[in-house]
Amino acid sequence: MQARDLAEEFPVVRLDDDALEATRLMTDQGLPGLVVVDEHGGPLVVLPASQVLRFALPEYIEEDPALARVYGEREADTFCKELVGRKVRELMPGRQYLPKRDRDKPVVSAAATLIEVASVMTRQHSPVVAVVDDEQILGVITVHRLLGAALPRS
Amino acid sequence: MNAPTWQVALSIAVFAGAYVTIATEWVHRVKAALVGAGLMLMIGATDGDAAFYSEETGIDWNVIFLLLGMMVIVSVVKQTGVFEYLAIWAAKQAQGRPYRVLVLLCTITAVASAALDNVTTVLLVAPVTLLVCDRIGVRPEGFLIAEALASNIGGAATLIGDPPNIIIASRADLSFNDFLVNMGPIVVVLMGVFLLLARWLFRRSFTYDAGRAAAVMDLDERAAIRDRTLLVRCLLVLVAVLVGFSLHTLLHIDPSVVALLGAGVLVLVSGTTSEEFLEDVEWETLVFFAGLFVMVGTLVNVGVI
Question: Which of 3.40.50.12780, 3.30.160.390, 3.10.580.10, 3.40.50.150 would CATH assign to domain A3-150?
Fold first, then answer.
């Protein structure tokens, strides 16, 4: 099986899209992440849901997890308000997050085998990879879809 | 030791080189101290006996192990969440009013710094300060700078408050009580003056929204305590260690031994793993001091000091 056989339609977002809308897209469609494309429509990076959480969570809680417990239920329910008025690019701390080299992009060729797809996912810590043919996105493969196809038949 | 002139000159050059390198941060301070110590041994201005077995001309292991013991104690105390509890409790007592919050947080920092290492204390108080400032809706920079200053002031009060104090006390043969009696009163006065000055120094940090300040009252400080039993054990050991320090003239037990005993007991009763109780040990600081001791000891050895 090749990556093209598993690729499915998937929404993409741009760096200047609204962060809240992008996150809503993720939650409404139950996606593990979103492919972020550059100005030419080429895949740039994957924004995983975990990164959205990391952005929304105050840094001091990451530093000292005990502080998460001191919030009241009402306050805790609204921790995602940090996303309001933000752009997708703000969710990803630029220099650390955006790939410096082409091989760091969460991309596989249409002819890639499942083990190549798995390798890119683990290397990039990405739950989604874009399948590209002739610089055009054919679709994406999610980690669930990959595992579903690769698991041995019982 | 009657060292030849060239050895004396080289020792001074090595020390001055390391000093300039450390002050200008050209290379990491630990690297500079270790290379400097190595060079002192290489040129023969000191030897293994003088560097490792003499308190006068080498590493003062009392200082190193006192620091190590206190760092282990802090690592375990940190697991209890007591710092988070105190800081949030203070913010609630101040009803979220920024200047009052600053006064209470600085007081907690200063008192904790007198019993524990300064850097560690600030690192423990900083995240909860950010949380409180976020809740009140004020910029945290002024609060953090004030805490760093309060930590330095408070740390000056006791022998264990700051590494230089430990070294001074060890070299001048001062006891814990000598330090506390002589430094304590002036530190209290200094803190008072500092807190009054802070009202003006950090005035820009005190503009706040009363509505948001009320959000501080919703925080539950008791939830910050992770393990009440561990907290009680930690406090008992910490008090015992402080009593041990203050009874030095009576018991003649070195502060380093008291700190190591306290650390050992705490490790045993806390059930923490080695990763946990060594988490806050600043190995870099310990190695840095060891290197410095060898360099300064060499200058003593060749008669420069």
Answer: 3.10.580.10
CA distance A30 to A8: 14
Nearest CA-CA distance, residue A41 and chain B, Å: 38
ipTM of the predicted assembly exceeds 0.95: no
Break chain A into its structural domains and give their ranges. Answer: 3-150
Domain ranges of chain B: 5-60+288-301, 68-281
pLDDT, tens digit only, all 305 positions of chain B:
678 889 899 999 999 999 999 999 899 999 999 999 999 999 999 999 999 998 888 999 988 999 999 999 999 998 899 989 999 999 899 988 999 999 999 999 999 999 888 888 888 899 999 999 988 889 999 999 999 999 999 999 999 888 888 888 888 888 889 989 999 999 999 999 999 999 999 998 888 777 777 778 888 999 989 889 999 999 999 999 999 998 887 888 888 999 999 999 999 999 889 998 998 899 999 999 999 999 999 999 888 88
Q: How far is CA B267 from CA A38, A150, B119, B278, B280, in A?
A: 53, 47, 22, 10, 13
Cβ(A110)–Cβ(A134) below 8 Å: no
Size of interface A-B (CB pairs under 8 A): 46
Alpha carbon distance B16, B26 (integer Å): 14
Cβ of B134 within 8 Å of Cβ of A60? The answer is yes
